[in-house]
Every structure is written in C-alpha cells, then in structure tokens.
C-alpha cells in the first residue's frame, strides 16, 4: 500500500508578491502583476510587457558573495525554499538527511546567465567567460543548491518539461515518498526568462500578447479577444512529507497530494492536440490515481494560458472528463493575473489550488469580458467566490505535448 503524501510548507516568489500570503491576497483582489518590461529596452519587440517579480531582495536569503555565482532562477528557488521550510517548522537537525530529497523543475533554467556569458565570449574571447557559467546555467542546479543548503542527501534532480516542469516535480516527489524512498521532499519550480533572447524567441513564435498599451488587461484566458500569453517569472516550492513523518513531529498539515496523471499529446511541438486528448487522459489518470470518481472534483485551476488553441482544447478536455458536472464547478486561470510563469507555473498554481481548498474561496479570472463561445465553463468572472472544495485539479501543459494534472485534497484525511 502506497504511503500518503502531505504538504507541510509553502513558499512563493511571484509577480504578485514575494510570499504566499502576498500572492493570495492579490489574487483574491483581482490584481494584475503584469506591466511594462523594465529590465531591457523593448523598443524593437512586438511584446513589451511581462509579469516581472518586483522588489525582490535576494540578499535576505543568500550571502552577497554567493549571489554573484547564482542565476536569478536559482535565487528565486532558494528564496521560495527558505520560506517553505520556515512555514513547515521542520527541524533539519532532527530528520534523517539521507531520507530527505529535492526535485525542482525549470523549463529553461539560467538563460540570463547564458546570454550574459555569450556576450562576454563574443566581446573578449573564451578567457572572459566565467568559471561559474555552467553551474549558474544548468537547470538541475536549483535542486542541487537547495540540497546543499539543507544537507538533504536523498533523491535530487530536476524535471524539464517546459510549462509542466514543476507539476512533474511535485508528481515525482510525491511518488518518491509514496514508494518509501524518502520521508521529506522539497519540490516545485523556478523560472527567470524575462530576458532579451527569451522574449525575442516567444515574440517570433507569435505566442505572446501584444496588448502593450493595456498591460494589466493583456492576459485574457478564455476571452474571445485573447491574443496570446504574457510571460511571468518566479518560483513556487512545497515541503512534502509522508503522513506518518508529519504526524510524528506534530506538523501542521495543509493538504494532501492525492493523485497525479502524466501524459503526452504526441501531436505537435507547440500546439495542443485539438480535441484535448493528452489533457483529458492526464486528468482521468490523476483522478484514478487519487482513488476518486470524476464527480468528486469540486474545482479546477486550469492551465488557461490565453492562447487561441490551448484554451479551447482544455475546455473540451474538462467537459469530456467531468461531463455535465463540468458546468457546475468553478474553474479559473491564475495566469490572468500572474502571466505565465512557464516552468514555475505548475507549482505556484498548485499552491493556489491548495489555498483555495483551505480558505474555501476561489479567485476570479480577470479580463474575461467577451467569452469565447467555445470556452463555456464557469471561469469565475468578476470577483472572488466562496466555494466548498474537498478535491481539486491543477492542470499544467507544456510545449512538446507534456501534460500533468494533479489532484489535491484537504486535511480531513479521508477519501
């Protein structure tokens, strides 16, 4: 019998605040974290807006000398981890460090470092490239640095599946605990891609919104006038434990990771399967893994990117899975306010899903003013809404056809 995985700590660095509490308050208020890009000149870019992390002081978490050897994505991961560990009240001197691990995903990793060091190469030759270039850039270093800071010697790696990366990390970490290979796992994702090359690439792919004159209204999931996603950044981190381990130390338990479904579209490098096949099978697999029936799902935090094909495919998949009940439960898109945090989005949105269960309220999907007739579910427009939620789905889908759906439950310990 598989062990149960519970959540005992949460941490977040996002465009809506540098803590989970700040994030949650802003979401309930329907506040957008999107604005003009401030980090470089976007005069020649078709998209000039993004959900930047604001007022982030990494020196609160990391020594200034160490900071010079870390990409921004790694700084976000460490900051969110420190928050989650503090939230969990886990005593690192009282746990078996060989049975504690880390899985932190990222879609792109240290791309700012790559860009900066490539410029140094072009200007000054190979001798000008930093000896820390590789560890600052590679995606697995978020997990590596966190394990070193905590002394965790159990399973340690990164998941890389574009915008599904951190959802895969949570799924993997949960299963590591379930099968008995660890008692404690730190899991989530980090991303810092608001950079010249990354923005240029997405602009050239025609994937992002060009509603530059109205940044706060640019991310419009499920709206007929949507014109692409808005890039975001940040990190979301969980402290997860086996139920037995958490109870033995008297931990506060926020909720439980009940099920995970992981599939592939096997269809196209960027577009979803038009009938939502991969999304549908991921949701079905997650619900089955949780030991539930589809009629037990009370809320869905959608992937909801505000892309033309993606929103329709996900809506279709939800209706295929839940049938008539799909019209009776709240669904929303956190990306309407956060933008798309890429590899960090799954973890942050799972935090939001868990908070919705705990607080009994779901945030609105902002900017949904002219609903697409093909997107006809209850996306919680207008303002926040009270909701009695026992079990919820969080969906994450990525370029390459990667699909992850997670089932999250409350703290009553029952199914």
Main sheet makeup: 10 strands, mixed
- Helical fraction: 25-40%
Strand order of the largest sheet: 5-4-6-7-1-8-14-13-9-10
| Overall pLDDT score | 97
Radius of gyration: 20 Å
State which percent range the strand residues make up. 15-25%
Count of helices?
13
Describe this structure in words.
The protein is 33% helix and 18% strand. The longest helix is centred in the first third of the chain and has 17 residues, at 72-88. It has helices spanning 20-28, 64-67, 72-88, 111-124, 133-137, 141-150, 165-178, 196-204, 243-248, 277-289, 308-322, 335-338, 345-359; strands at 5-13, 35-36, 49-50, 100-105, 156-157, 184-191, 234-242, 255-264, 299-301, 331-332, 361-362, 385-386, 391-398, 402-409. The chain is an alpha/beta fold and 415 residues long. The mean pLDDT is 97. Helix 3 crosses helix 6 (141-150) and helix 10 (277-289) crosses helix 11 (308-322). It contains 13 helices and 14 strands. The chain has a ten-stranded mixed beta sheet with strand order 5-4-6-7-1-8-14-13-9-10, with helices on both faces. A two-stranded antiparallel sheet has the order 2-3.
């Amino acid at each position: 019998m598989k062990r149960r995985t519970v959540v005992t700590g949460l941490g977040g660095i996002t465009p809506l605040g540098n803590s989970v509490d700040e994030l949650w308050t802003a979401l309930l208020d329907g506040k957008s974290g999107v604005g003009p890009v401030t980090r470089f000149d976007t005069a020649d870019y078709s998209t000039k807006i993004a959900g930047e992390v604001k007022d982030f002081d990494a020196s609160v978490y990391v020594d200034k000398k160490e900071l010079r050897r870390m990409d921004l994505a790694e700084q976000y991961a460490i900051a969110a981890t420190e928050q989650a560990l503090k939230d969990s009240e886990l005593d690192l001197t009282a746990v078996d460090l060989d049975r504690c691990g880390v899985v932190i995903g990222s879609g792109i990793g240290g791309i700012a470092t790559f860009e900066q060091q490539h410029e140094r190469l072009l200007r000054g030759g190979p001798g000008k490239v930093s000896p820390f270039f590789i560890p600052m850039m590679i995606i697995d270093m978020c997990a590596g640095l966190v394990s070193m800071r905590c002394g965790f010697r159990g399973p340690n790696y990164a998941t890389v599946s574009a915008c599904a990366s951190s959802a895969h990390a949570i799924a993997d970490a949960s299963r590591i605990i379930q099968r008995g290979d660890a008692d404690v796992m730190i899991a989530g994702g980090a991303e810092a891609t608001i950079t010249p090359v990354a923005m240029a690439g997405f602009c050239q792919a025609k994937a992002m919104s060009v509603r530059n004159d109205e940044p706060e209204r640019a991310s419009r999931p499920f709206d007929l006038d949507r014109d692409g996603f808005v890039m975001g950044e940040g990190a979301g981190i969980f402290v997860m434990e086996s139920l037995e381990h958490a109870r033995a130390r008297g931990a506060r338990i926020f909720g439980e990771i009940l099920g995970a479904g992981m599939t592939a579209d096997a269809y196209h490098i960027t577009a979803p399967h038009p009938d939502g096949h991969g999304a549908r099978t991921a949701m079905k697999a997650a619900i089955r893994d949780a030991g539930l029936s589809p009629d037990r799902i009370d809320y869905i935090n959608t992937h909801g990117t505000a892309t033309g094909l993606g929103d329709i495919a996900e809506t279709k998949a939800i209706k295929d899975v839940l049938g008539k009940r799909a019209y009776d439960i709240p669904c929303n898109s956190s990306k309407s306010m956060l933008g798309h945090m890429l590899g960090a989005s799954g973890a942050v949105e799972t935090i939001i899903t868990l908070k919705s269960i705990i607080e009994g309220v779901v945030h609105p999907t902002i900017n949904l003013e002219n609903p697409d007739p093909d997107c006809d579910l209850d996306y919680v427009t207008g303002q926040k809404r009270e909701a009695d939620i026992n079990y919820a789905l969080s969906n994450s889908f990525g370029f390459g056809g990667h699909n992850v759906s997670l089932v999250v439950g409350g703290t009553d310990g029952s199914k």
